[in-house]
Automatic annotation (TrEMBL):
PANTHER family: BLL2941 PROTEIN, GLYOXALASE FAMILY PROTEIN (AFU_ORTHOLOGUE AFUA_5G14830). Residues 1-121 form the VOC domain. Pfam families: Glyoxalase (PF00903). It comes from the Bacteria. Coiled coil: none annotated. This is VOC family protein.
Amino acid sequence: MITNILLGSNDLKKAERFYDALLTEFGARQVMKNDRSILWKTPDSPVGIALCVPFDGQPASSGNGTMIGLKGKSPRNVTDIYNKALAMGASCEGPPGERRPGVYAAYFRDPDGNKFGIFHTAT
């Protein structure tokens, strides 16, 4: 049902560098690119993450209460991806740690303010 999750960007070149580096941690690569948008997917998923310059010409902004959840392979992987995101200019929205029994997570905002959670569940 879902083909992609689309996020707005105010600086597509900067966002491309950020996501090219970050999404390789999940095995994703660019599968589509033009002057207004870029799409990344993994070989085994029909759903991707896309970035675009807003069509209406207004600044891109993140939604309050909106978040993209990414699946981590292990608690260490969650921490590594979180640290990589912060090293590339993301901001902390919640450091890595156990959120409830069996759930390890971390939260950050990309350079455009879009919120991500990385989750590993023990089950």
